[in-house]
Design brief:
Strand order of the largest sheet: 1-4
Radius of gyration: 26 Å
Number of helices: 4
Number of strands: 4
Order of helices and strands: HEEEHHEH
Shape: elongated
């Protein structure tokens, strides 16, 4: 009984795990070098309707009104719509205000990250195809 490697193909098991380890290491280094900033505040404009800006602070008004309606009568559909719609708007505002940037690094650091990511991907995908006949 022949032992199959990665993807059911003969051989390639070493390349599979080496490629997987390289991709994980490169992915970790890449994600570790990304800096996340946010600009969310109660005055952050979510939408603009001409000269009128809808800020995140304004979305808290229907949220609070919806909460009052829900606590007064939990079966009120309008209260649930106000609460859930405002909560969704606040969540969208938080996500929309996030900014990503790549941390300052040397060219060597960037080349190591790209080599690990792309070289690992090449080894990983190459291990899934047949390596020829083994006797």
């Amino acid at each position: 009984m022949a032992v199959n490697g990665a993807g059911g193909t003969p051989g390639g098991l070493g390349r599979f795990f080496l490629g997987l380890a390289m991709m994980v290491a490169g992915g970790y280094l890449f994600l570790n070098s990304i800096r996340v900033y946010h600009f969310f505040s109660l005055g952050y404009a979510l939408h603009s309707f001409g000269p009128v800006r809808l800020t995140t602070g304004m979305t808290l008004i229907p949220l609070c009104l919806g909460l009052v309606m829900i606590f007064y009568n939990a079966r009120t559909i309008l209260g649930w719509l106000l609460f859930l719609g405002s909560l969704l708007a606040v969540c969208v505002g938080v996500i929309a205000s996030i900014r990503f940037s790549l941390a300052g690094m040397s060219l060597f650091d960037l080349l190591v990250i790209l080599t690990l990511l792309l070289g690992g991907l090449g080894l990983f995908l190459g291990s899934l195809r047949s390596q020829g006949s083994t006797t």
